[in-house]
Write a structure and sequence with these properties.
This protein is mainly α. The chain has a domain at 35-87. It has 4 helices and no strands. It has helices at 2-25, 35-49, 53-65, 73-87. The two termini are 42 Å apart.
Length: 99
Amino acid sequence: MLKVRMDFKRILLLILIGLLIKAEGLSQQEITFNPAAEELFSQGLSRFKSGKFNDAAALFDDLYRLKPWHQRTTAAYLMLAKSWFQLRKMPITPSPWII
């Protein structure tokens, strides 16, 4: 019985070490600086501030879908949600980012 417990502990330890090694390889995607994204975000923000929520939502939607990910990806996603909130509009299909 004691041998079975020791074997179980060793197997569990090996599994945990393997998961930790795998998790390290799944780090976040690298973010790049994109001057065009900065300009689009600025335009969207000014439209949002002036109450043009439809126009702002369209810009933020394009911006958060832009690949590779850039310095304004998360902010664009947040501002898209704020624009939808102001319009009382919710997406019909869930975002692929929502888990």
